[in-house]
What does this fold into?
Amino acid sequence: MMAQPLASIVTPVYNTKKYLKQTIESVKNQTLSDWEMILVDDCSDDGSWELLEELAENESRIRIFRNSKNSGSGISRNRAIGIAEGKYIAFLDSDDLWHPDKLKIQIDLMEKNNWEFSHTSYGYISPDGEKIKSMFHVSKYPITYRDLLKRTEISCLTAIYNQELIGKYFMSEHRKKQDYALWLAILKDGTESHPIDMELAFYRQTPGSATSNKWNLVTNHI
It folds into this structure.
């Protein structure tokens, strides 16, 4: 049997102790087993770091790091991207979830079709993990730079790029919309993102969070 390509999962952490274990479990439950999860704690003060130390103790695929000062999710993600050893770089925030087959389905398609970049449809869950809202469907055709300017459909927790084909791309250091700027940078260089219309990831909507406004951010560009 051929070895699976390694997937590096980039996860910034800041005061999400309440959800962190469930997020990590959704990675440990992946049917693709060759992954490393790189979590960078941005000086949490709610016990997130201590929980990370506990969860990483008996799982070699979980790699944890802590910033010396609070720097924002963009810098935290960039630190993880710089450390990442995988062929594929994926993104998952510390309060969101993946379907168990997310990596397997997406990376199998990327391998089969030699895709450089891909993204999937996604759903929404409440703070308690209950499914809410309708599934957000991605387009039927590959997304170009111009397409993404019109419709923000590539979401951080669904995006994967092949760093062996296109090199490592990093986030903006601004504290807002770093992921959108990253996708634009990749697409501007001529890459297309291939959509997979399957609900393979779930945004957790918590009061006041950036993801609680995701639906508005998307519909404003349609």
In short: The CA atoms of residues 81 and 168 lie 7 Å apart. The beta strands are 7-13, 35-41, 62-66, 88-91, 97-98, 117-125, 131-136, 160-162, 194-204. The two ends are 44 Å apart (CA to CA).
